[in-house]
Specification:
By secondary structure, the chain is α/β, with parallel strands linked by helices. It is built from 9 helices and 7 strands, in the order αααβαβααββαβααββ.
Length: 203
């Protein structure tokens, strides 16, 4: 598949191409999503937000272990697919899926205990605005986990610059700190997995 087609579908999966990309994302991102979800430190009474959930590979565990999960994605097709897949949880009030962007999340202030976003920071209009908006919807003491491929490795993929903005780990961490997050930390698992996470706690 052409890099531009792949980049557009990664940004906002649509139609048959979107279904194919979601399937590929679920396989390719499984390890990163598992690592990121582990760092959420889920509790049974948590209200969890996932931004840009795509193929939904990270959703089952929070839905199973937390009190409530809200998924927000820019793609109406993705939202529709998740609403169908998790229809029982939606009916029970344990899950909800909405169309939205990180810069303007469709949620009130201090609505969530935990927030997760994996492989989305490349599409944010700015790290600073995204971090501030996540801080707005988290309760004081709420935890955020951002999973991403760092710029040094992303640059090798030659993704279209008008769609992808590779991010340096220090820039992601700085955006969280500037948005009022404390205990900001960049982590990567043992071994050369090629990805890492940035975590922080809302003050």
């Amino acid at each position: 598949m052409a890099p531009r087609f792949v980049a557009r579908q990664l940004s906002r999966p649509t139609g048959l191409g979107g279904r194919i990309i979601r399937s590929l994302m679920n396989r390719g991102n499984a390890s990163l999503n598992s690592y990121a979800v582990e760092q959420l430190r889920l509790s049974a009474d948590d209200r969890v937000l996932e931004i840009g959930f795509g193929g939904g590979v990270a959703l089952p565990r929070p839905i199973r272990e937390a009190a409530y999960v809200c998924g927000v994605d820019a793609s109406p097709d993705v939202v529709k697919a998740a609403t169908t897949r998790f229809a029982n949880d939606v009916s029970a009030g344990r899950a909800e899926f909405r169309v939205g962007m990180v810069e303007s999340l469709p949620s009130p202030d201090a609505a969530f205990d935990k927030a997760l976003s994996v492989n989305t920071v490349y599409f944010w209009k700015s790290l600073e605005s995204g971090a501030r908006e996540i801080g707005r919807v988290l309760k004081p003491g709420g935890r955020v986990v951002l999973g991403f491929v760092p710029k040094a490795r992303m640059d090798r993929m030659n993704m279209p610059a008008d769609i992808f903005t590779p991010r340096k780990p220090d820039d992601v961490a700085a955006a969280l700190a500037d948005a009022g997050f404390d205990a900001v930390e960049v982590r990567k698992p043992r071994g050369d997995w090629g990805w890492m996470t940035a975590t922080g706690v809302r003050t």
